[in-house]
Amino acid sequence: MEPKVKRTKTAEQALVSLMNLCAKSEKCSADARRLMRGWGVSTADAERVLQRLISERFIDDSRYAEAFVREKINLSGWGVYKITATLRQKGISGEVISSALEQCSGVDMAERLVSILTRKLRTVKAKNSADLRAKLLRYALGQGYDFSTAKEVVESLVKSENEQCDDWDF
Protein backbone atom coordinates (compact mmCIF):
# COMPACT_ATOMS: atom_id res chain seq x y z
CA MET A 1 0.00 0.00 0.00
CA GLU A 2 1.37 3.42 -0.96
CA PRO A 3 1.82 6.08 1.70
CA LYS A 4 -0.80 8.81 1.68
CA VAL A 5 0.48 11.89 -0.12
CA LYS A 6 -0.05 15.16 1.72
CA ARG A 7 -1.91 17.75 -0.26
CA THR A 8 0.22 20.84 -0.51
CA LYS A 9 -1.13 24.35 -0.88
CA THR A 10 0.33 27.64 -1.92
CA ALA A 11 0.20 30.61 0.42
CA GLU A 12 -2.82 32.02 -1.46
CA GLN A 13 -4.67 28.70 -1.30
CA ALA A 14 -3.87 28.45 2.41
CA LEU A 15 -5.19 31.98 2.96
CA VAL A 16 -8.49 31.19 1.22
CA SER A 17 -8.85 27.87 3.05
CA LEU A 18 -8.16 29.46 6.42
CA MET A 19 -10.56 32.32 5.74
CA ASN A 20 -13.27 29.75 5.04
CA LEU A 21 -12.41 27.74 8.17
CA CYS A 22 -12.28 30.83 10.37
CA ALA A 23 -15.62 32.04 9.03
CA LYS A 24 -17.20 28.78 10.25
CA SER A 25 -15.53 28.46 13.67
CA GLU A 26 -13.01 30.19 15.90
CA LYS A 27 -9.37 29.31 15.30
CA CYS A 28 -6.29 30.48 17.13
CA SER A 29 -2.97 31.40 15.55
CA ALA A 30 -1.45 28.07 16.65
CA ASP A 31 -4.23 26.17 14.83
CA ALA A 32 -3.54 28.17 11.66
CA ARG A 33 0.22 27.55 11.89
CA ARG A 34 -0.35 23.82 12.43
CA LEU A 35 -2.66 23.59 9.42
CA MET A 36 -0.28 25.52 7.17
CA ARG A 37 2.64 23.33 8.27
CA GLY A 38 0.58 20.29 7.27
CA TRP A 39 -0.14 21.87 3.90
CA GLY A 40 3.56 22.42 3.28
CA VAL A 41 3.42 26.24 3.36
CA SER A 42 6.85 27.74 4.07
CA THR A 43 7.38 29.39 7.45
CA ALA A 44 7.81 32.87 5.96
CA ASP A 45 4.65 32.53 3.83
CA ALA A 46 2.76 31.10 6.79
CA GLU A 47 3.63 34.13 8.92
CA ARG A 48 2.52 36.51 6.15
CA VAL A 49 -0.78 34.62 5.79
CA LEU A 50 -1.25 34.62 9.57
CA GLN A 51 -0.61 38.37 9.81
CA ARG A 52 -3.20 39.01 7.12
CA LEU A 53 -5.75 36.79 8.90
CA ILE A 54 -5.10 38.65 12.14
CA SER A 55 -5.29 42.09 10.52
CA GLU A 56 -8.60 41.20 8.86
CA ARG A 57 -9.85 39.81 12.21
CA PHE A 58 -10.39 36.27 10.95
CA ILE A 59 -8.10 35.16 13.78
CA ASP A 60 -8.12 36.79 17.21
CA ASP A 61 -6.52 34.82 20.05
CA SER A 62 -8.43 36.69 22.76
CA ARG A 63 -11.76 36.08 21.04
CA TYR A 64 -10.77 32.43 20.59
CA ALA A 65 -9.85 32.10 24.27
CA GLU A 66 -13.15 33.63 25.39
CA ALA A 67 -15.16 31.28 23.17
CA PHE A 68 -13.05 28.31 24.33
CA VAL A 69 -13.61 29.14 28.02
CA ARG A 70 -17.35 29.60 27.48
CA GLU A 71 -17.66 26.28 25.65
CA LYS A 72 -15.55 24.24 28.04
CA ILE A 73 -17.27 25.55 31.16
CA ASN A 74 -20.84 25.45 29.89
CA LEU A 75 -20.82 22.42 27.62
CA SER A 76 -17.88 20.22 28.63
CA GLY A 77 -17.89 20.97 32.36
CA TRP A 78 -14.14 21.55 32.54
CA GLY A 79 -12.48 23.24 35.48
CA VAL A 80 -10.15 26.23 35.39
CA TYR A 81 -6.92 24.18 35.54
CA LYS A 82 -7.75 22.04 32.51
CA ILE A 83 -8.89 25.05 30.49
CA THR A 84 -5.72 26.98 31.36
CA ALA A 85 -3.45 24.05 30.50
CA THR A 86 -5.15 23.48 27.14
CA LEU A 87 -4.97 27.15 26.17
CA ARG A 88 -1.29 27.27 27.16
CA GLN A 89 -0.66 24.24 24.93
CA LYS A 90 -2.20 26.19 22.06
CA GLY A 91 0.24 29.04 22.67
CA ILE A 92 -2.23 31.54 24.08
CA SER A 93 -0.53 34.09 26.38
CA GLY A 94 -1.13 34.07 30.13
CA GLU A 95 -2.74 37.51 30.17
CA VAL A 96 -5.20 36.54 27.42
CA ILE A 97 -6.07 33.37 29.36
CA SER A 98 -6.58 35.34 32.59
CA SER A 99 -8.79 37.82 30.78
CA ALA A 100 -10.87 35.03 29.23
CA LEU A 101 -11.23 33.25 32.58
CA GLU A 102 -12.63 36.40 34.19
CA GLN A 103 -15.91 35.73 32.41
CA CYS A 104 -16.37 32.57 34.49
CA SER A 105 -15.91 34.40 37.80
CA GLY A 106 -19.70 34.49 38.29
CA VAL A 107 -20.00 30.75 37.74
CA ASP A 108 -20.10 28.68 40.91
CA MET A 109 -17.56 25.98 40.09
CA ALA A 110 -18.50 23.90 43.17
CA GLU A 111 -22.13 23.85 42.06
CA ARG A 112 -21.11 22.83 38.55
CA LEU A 113 -18.88 20.10 39.96
CA VAL A 114 -21.75 18.76 42.09
CA SER A 115 -23.81 18.41 38.92
CA ILE A 116 -20.99 16.68 37.03
CA LEU A 117 -20.13 14.28 39.85
CA THR A 118 -23.78 13.45 40.51
CA ARG A 119 -24.03 12.32 36.90
CA LYS A 120 -20.75 10.40 37.20
CA LEU A 121 -21.96 8.75 40.41
CA ARG A 122 -24.58 6.80 38.44
CA THR A 123 -21.93 5.00 36.40
CA VAL A 124 -19.16 4.46 38.97
CA LYS A 125 -18.64 0.93 40.23
CA ALA A 126 -17.00 1.06 43.65
CA LYS A 127 -16.28 -1.64 46.24
CA ASN A 128 -16.77 0.68 49.21
CA SER A 129 -17.06 4.35 50.10
CA ALA A 130 -13.27 4.85 50.14
CA ASP A 131 -13.02 3.45 46.60
CA LEU A 132 -15.94 5.65 45.51
CA ARG A 133 -14.29 8.69 47.09
CA ALA A 134 -11.01 7.99 45.26
CA LYS A 135 -12.68 7.47 41.88
CA LEU A 136 -14.80 10.60 42.12
CA LEU A 137 -11.86 12.69 43.32
CA ARG A 138 -9.65 11.41 40.49
CA TYR A 139 -12.39 12.22 37.97
CA ALA A 140 -12.90 15.74 39.37
CA LEU A 141 -9.17 16.47 39.27
CA GLY A 142 -8.98 15.12 35.73
CA GLN A 143 -11.72 17.54 34.75
CA GLY A 144 -9.53 20.41 35.96
CA TYR A 145 -11.09 21.36 39.29
CA ASP A 146 -8.93 22.41 42.21
CA PHE A 147 -8.23 19.85 44.93
CA SER A 148 -9.96 21.61 47.83
CA THR A 149 -13.22 22.15 45.92
CA ALA A 150 -13.12 18.61 44.54
CA LYS A 151 -12.47 17.07 47.96
CA GLU A 152 -15.27 19.07 49.59
CA VAL A 153 -17.81 18.15 46.89
CA VAL A 154 -16.78 14.48 46.82
CA GLU A 155 -17.04 14.22 50.61
CA SER A 156 -20.56 15.69 50.61
CA LEU A 157 -21.68 13.43 47.76
CA VAL A 158 -20.25 10.27 49.34
CA LYS A 159 -21.79 11.21 52.68
CA SER A 160 -25.23 11.73 51.12
CA GLU A 161 -24.84 8.51 49.12
CA ASN A 162 -24.04 6.57 52.31
CA GLU A 163 -27.03 8.13 54.09
CA GLN A 164 -29.30 7.06 51.23
CA CYS A 165 -27.98 3.49 51.47
CA ASP A 166 -28.57 3.51 55.26
CA ASP A 167 -32.20 4.52 54.69
CA TRP A 168 -32.94 1.36 52.72
CA ASP A 169 -34.90 -1.24 54.66
CA PHE A 170 -34.21 -4.84 53.79
Largest sheet: none
Could you give the distance between the termini? 64 Å
Elements, N to C (H/E): HHHHHHHHH
User: Which residues sit in consecutive blocks of at least 5 with pLDDT less than 50?
Assistant: none
Shape by Cα distribution: elongated
Derived structural class: mainly alpha
Radius of gyration: 22 Å
- What's the pLDDT, averaged over the residues? 88
- How much helicity do the residues have? 55-70%
- Residue share in β-strands: under 5%
What does this molecule look like?
The chain is an all-alpha fold. It contains nine helices and no strands. The chain is elongated. The relative contact order is 0.09.
